[in-house]
Amino acid sequence: MSHNKVVLASLQRACLIKELNAFISIAQPQDLSPSRSTDRLNGFTVAIKDNFCTTDFKTTCASQMLADYNPGYDASIVEKLRKEGAILFGKTNLDEFAMGSGTVDSLHGPTKNIWGSPLHYTIGGKERKSKPSWRIAGGSSGGSAVAVASGTCRIGIGSDTGGSTRNPASYCGVVGFKPTYSSVSRHGLIPLVNSMDVPGIITRTVDDAVLTYNVISGHDPKDSTTVEVSPVKLDDKFNLNKIKVGIPREYHCEGLSQEVLEVWKSIARILQEAGAKVSQMSMPHTSSSIACYSVLNQCEVASNMARYDGLRYGHRSSQCKSTHDLYASSRSEGLGLVVRGRILAGNFFLLQRNYSKYFEKAMKVRRLICEDFKRAWDEFDILLTPTTLSGAPELRQFAGLDNREQCVMNDYCTQPANMSGCPAISIPVALNKNELPLSLQLMSKNYDEETLLSVARIIEKYVSFPSIELVDT
Amino acid sequence: MPSVMLPKRFLSVKLLRKVKSFSTSANVMPKKKPKWRSVVGLEIHAQLNTKSKLFSGASTNFGSLVNDNVSLFDAATPGTLPVLNKKCVEQGVLTALALNCQVNNVSYFDRKHYFYADLPAGYQITQQRRPLAENGFLEFQVFAPAKKRFYYKTSRLKQIQLEQDSGKSLHDDNLKRSLIDLNRAGVPLMELVFEPDLSDGEEAASLVKELCLILTRLRTCSCRMEEGALRVDANISVHREGEPLGVRTEVKNLGSVRGVANSIDYEINRQIQELEGGRIIENETRGWDAVSSQTVPMRDKEVKLDYRFMPEPNLPPLRIDLSSSESDLICVEKLYSSLPELPSETRNRLKETYGLSPEMVNNLVNEDQLLSMFTEVLEAKTSRDPKIIAKILTIELMTLVNKELTSLSDVKWNPKILGEIIDFLQEDKINLTTAQFLLQEIANNNPNSPGEIVSKLGLAQISDSAALQELCSQIIKDNPKMVQQYRSGKTKLLSALLGVVAQKSGNRANMKQATQIMKDLLSS
After folding, report:
1. Which end of chain A, N or C, is more open, meaning fewer C-beta atoms within 10 Å of its C-beta?
2. Which residue of B has its CA nearest to A351?
């Protein structure tokens, strides 16, 4: 397809899914410059989560605070994508400042899942049978996941701090890949938790994820935490004979649905039959991860959000009797309840008298979780777990929970990988009785993306997950 | 030192109790309270001498247009990350080595939070948990005016940490608005935290002066206090001898050496007055008002800030190579070998090699340009007398500089011209008065060389003893009254008579010879 045709097709799809509210900004066709045929991402449309800074679009973080914000620079990965010929198609919806797991807490309203929606679509070429109902896309990178699931964009860029890329990928039936912390630059990613944030990749296939990873990964002088990594090359002859797969007991947690448990078991069995050595194992500190994450997240949020004072950029209140008054009203007008709640808690945890009780303790727990992983990698190449506990919940039901409950439910399986920094991928493996995607997560040793993606591709081939196609009526 | 001090203090406390109980029971002797002691500790912020900021590529140039030296990071643009400037670390380590510190092989950066309009991110990146270097000391000379002599003092240096400077707020009271200049935001500072080892303003000023000499020598800080490149905070308390330390106040942002001395001495006296008046000292931050010469409370004292320190997650631990392994880390050993001669070493060398007096040594070391002139003039001709060179430079040339008749950076004061004058003096071809005259002429842009001036104006010294003899005899003849008074015991008049010699000879007479001849003639 020619460049123009690709863009046109994407624009048409974007129109069809308007109701899903995946995009915050979409490029004008005349702004999209053609790429060279030699570029690695020639003709690839990319949907970028609206917490990555871009010069072509405003960058809102789905917050009143940055509703009209133009940062004036491109994030490093945006630069890299552009350089390889990718078409920066639009910016996608998220929970405000990526604080959520449903893409429901957004200035622009919730993003809805294409699966189960009243939109006209086919699954694997057949008409859908299930009763339509609005379901969450997952989050916080819900917009990018929907953009890819709906076929509007070939690549979705998300960010992943506790599962924000894998979680919506899981609900939207697409591949969601969180690379090793430090292998992809965060420069230009508006931070949630600096020590855990990783740009995430959402695609329909593992191969596209590999291609995207090879473009955006590597050392960036503008992000001192990044290192040089070698590109991933998938070998078609790769087999599972030498691969040891661990099934961590603790991921069989409260609230895990029967349907996910079943696909988990069946994929484990399939891997074993394909030659892998599959065994149960233990990650004893898994259940502490959410509480620990909650403290570390809120502390970093409190710190990272301190810059939004309305002085240099962002929302500025008209109330300004004094500088401090201006701060207070700009921040309470510009930031949502969830964000303000986390700032408050984080500042409480960081008070001198509380520091050792909360922050320091959470850091110690984080180390224990990392040590669980270190021990695991002595024995195993891959850990196989659920991504989310079920198929996508209904929007109405989900919105009835508070933000904390939402995250506890959604991040349980994805969060530990962010603590240890290891790479993790969510791949769709089956549909449930409501014709909603069910996904599993694979994790591997830090920087061992190659094994992770190789195994993911084997599963992908085996399950041949049915693709969803929009029907233009 | 404290362990030696302790028994003494203990003793005096005991004594004090005895005296007290005696006086209360007997109720005769008036209470005699022990003397006041003052304790001073300094925290000094020195701007590192780099072209770009601590964590961004923006320029550190002083005097740029407002908000011109501001990168995206300096304005706390979301998504930007700090990237540590290697030069800052090297200069920090170099300074630490010169100040006898122990450099930490691993140090960390932390965020220190507070809301202020000129602190764009809402936090400052500093080194709280583990600084770059610790446990150093600085020895310096203090001039005791009462005794008119120098004494040595040492202050322990607790730590050196790297940190960002904040921006600058400008408040316009008339328009009721504040403006912010972020040029300084993110400028690299090293904070040097000294232990409270000082006892008054003069000691503090001397410490600052010596530190400036060292940092200037290392080229790690310009030490231009007028540009804010070096700022001093002083912690001050007073207590009665033998009693525990008093409540301290902090005088912040002192921007001149004299300000340091005056504010500290003022604050010590103020605290003593307060306590003697039965009032208490509050733990507060004060500023120095140079116009009214007093310290004044700073406005934001109402709440004690909790800085909510947190590790900076975007900067990996700073690792420094302490031995000389083959890594690309900053290497302490390499930096150590690049240390220049430090001011104290120069003083020793000048004293021991050339036998210069302490005053001359200090004058030379305190003025970098003077020291290099001294070295150049001497190296150009090693037979020159170092004492004569030092005297001409530190006294005669400096007199002109202090009168603002010339400047040391003027190209006129090259080793050739200075050397010529010094040679004439050393070879008795001219006397000191002529040397002074020559310096003045050159300062006044006389294009001729000293030799040409001497020959043109006939300034060569008269050292011919016959000629001097004749001159002196003539003066004795012309001033019978003075001669008579001299001979009857008023020997002071010798200098008056010699004054006439100088005058009559057009300041050319070799006064050393003339003095002897005059004395001989008068006593014959």
Report:
1. C
2. B308
**Residues in contact with A245: Cβ distance below 8 Å, sequence separation at least 6, in sequence order:** A268, A271, A272, A276, A277, A278, A279, A380, A381, A382, A383, A384, A455
**Which structure tokens are listed for A315?**
């929302």
Contacts of B229 (CB under 8 A, 6+ apart): B46, B47, B62, B221, B222, B223
CB atoms within 10 A of CB A33: 10
**Nearest chain B residue to A355, by CA:** B308
Three-state secondary structure string covering B356-381: CCHHHHHHHHHCHHHHHHHHHHHHHC
Domain end point (choices B401, B433, B457): B457
pLDDT per residue as tens digits for the range A227-272: 999 999 999 999 999 999 999 999 999 999 999 999 999 999 999 9
Q: What span, in angstroms and rounded, lies between the C-alpha atoms of B121 and B114?
A: 9
Please check whether residues B424 and B288 belong to one and the same domain. Answer: no
Least CA distance to B318: which residue of chain A?
A224
The answer to whether position B278 is within a domain reads: yes
A49 is catalytic: yes
Q: Is B209 in the same domain as B127? A: yes
- Give chain B's domain count: 3
Other Cβ atoms within 10 Å of B121 Cβ, number = 25
Q: Strands of B48-94 (E only): list them.
A: none
3-state secondary structure of B180: strand
**Within this chain, do residues B415 and B304 fall inside the same structural domain, yes or no?**
no
| DSSP alpha helix (H) spans, B236-288 | 257-276
Which domains does chain A show, CATH number per domain? Answer: 3-238+386-470 (3.90.1300.10)
Cα of B398 to nearest chain A Cα, Å? 51
What tokens appear for A322 in the block? 């004094």
Residue B384 included in any domain: yes
User: Any idea of the CA torsion for A353, A356, A359, A361, to the nearest 10 degrees?
Assistant: -150
Catalytic pick among A10, A140, A182, A439:
A140
Instruction: Find how far residue A279's CA is from the centre of its chain.
Output: 28
Same domain flag for B488 and B354: no
Residue B258 lies in a domain: yes
The torsion angles phi and psi of B261, rounded to 5 degrees, stand at -65, -50
Q: What is the pLDDT of residue A405?
A: 78
Q: What is the DSSP letter of B506?
A: T
Q: Which of A73, A189, A303 sits opposite B310 (nearest CB)?
A: A303
Task: Give the residue from B433, B457, B481 where a domain finishes.
Answer: B457
User: pLDDT of B92-131, one tens digit each?
Assistant: 999 999 999 999 999 999 999 998 999 999 999 999 999 9
User: Rounded to an integer, what distance in angstroms lies between the CA atom of residue B81 and that of residue A154?
Assistant: 29
| Residue B29: inside a domain | no
* Shared-domain flag, residues B175 and B132: yes
Q: Which of A422, A456, A455, A448 lies closest to A230 in space, CA to CA?
A: A448
Question: What tens digit of pLDDT does each residue of A92-137 get?
Answer: 999 999 999 999 999 999 999 999 999 999 999 999 999 999 999 9
| Residue A275 to residue A277: CA distance in whole angstroms | 7
**In a shared domain, residues B434 and B289:** no
Q: Which amino acid is at A454?
A: S
Residue B332: what residue type? Answer: V
Label the pairing between strands B177-181 and B188-194.
unpaired
Tell me whether residue A164 is one of the annotated catalytic residues. Answer: yes
Output DSSP code: residue A306: G
H-helix or E-strand containing A80? helix A76-83
B58 with B184, same domain? Answer: yes
Domain of B482, CATH number, reads: 1.10.10
Which pLDDT band holds residue B22 (cuts at 50, 70, 90)?
Answer: very low
In A40-99, the residues whose Cβ lies within 8 Å of chain B are 52-53, 59, 61, 66, 69, 71-73, 75
**Mean pLDDT score of chain B, rounded to an integer?**
89
B519 and B446 inside one domain? no
Query: What is the per-residue DSSP string for B90-113?
Result: HHHHHHHHHTTPEEPSEE--EEEE
Q: Which of B68, B73, B67 is nearest to B55 (CA)?
A: B73
Domain of residue B349 covers: 343-457
